[in-house]
Amino acid sequence: VNEKSGDSVRMFSLTFITVPAANSGLCIVNDELFVQNVKPEMIRRAFATLAPLPPSSSVPRLTAKQQKMLSIFSTRSRMNLEWSQKYVH
Q1: Cα–Cα nearest to 88, from 4, 30, 16
Q2: 9: DSSP letter
Q3: pLDDT tens by residue, 38-49
């Protein structure tokens, strides 16, 4: 991002709380969106050195209960398992 160009970059964080809905889906009962301007130095630091991905053996394993909860969340939210796990964590 060129500081003199007037371009702006923003970052955001979205948090939401869901409860089971009557139709076996999910109902969002509360959500919060936080948007913030990003300074050029923050961008440079964020992408200066990308860490390598951990080997699959170091990825935390889910317990049977967590896997079941993730599966239910995925089904009700209609998100695939990968994105469901990102939202649940």
Answers
A1: 16
A2: E
A3: 888 888 887 776
